[in-house]
Amino acid sequence: MFRSGISLHPSDGDTAEELIKNADIAMYRAKADGKNGYRFFTNELNESVSRRSNLSMALRKGIGRGEFTVHYQPQI
Questions:
Q1: Is the bond leading into 10 cis (omega within 30 degrees of zero)?
Q2: Tell me, what's the pLDDT at 18?
Q3: What is the pLDDT of residue 14?
Q4: Angle between the 43-64 and 16-33 helix axes, to the nearest 10 degrees?
Q5: pLDDT in tens for each of the 76 residues of the chain?
Q6: Where are the beta strands (DSSP E) in the chain?
Q7: Residue 15 CA from chain centroid, whole number
Q8: Exposed, middle or buried: residue 54 (CB in 10 Å: 0-12, 13-18, 19+)?
């Protein structure tokens, strides 16, 4: 299957590392969309990944501090 992420210089980064990182973000979005395809990097993709990463870190910290409890609610 063909899935590709695309980032462009200079709008998506000035260094090779930035361009590769941004193309990688776009590629994972193309994979999530399924089938063969490609995705161009956008700032919205970057913001989405950043929000998801921040949420994941906050949840891990909350679990580590015991801030979550499990409640069972039977459904009839």
A1: yes
A2: 93
A3: 93
A4: 80
A5: 678 999 999 999 999 999 999 999 999 888 888 877 899 999 999 898 899 999 999 999 999 999 999 899 998 8
A6: 3-6, 37-40
A7: 21
A8: exposed
Distance (Å, whole) CA 49 – CA 73: 33
Q: Which of 45, 8, 12 is nearest to 26 (CA)?
A: 45
| 9: its two tokens | 């210089």
**Burial of 66 from C-beta contacts in 10 A (0-12 / 13-18 / 19+):** exposed
3 state DSSP class of 56:
helix
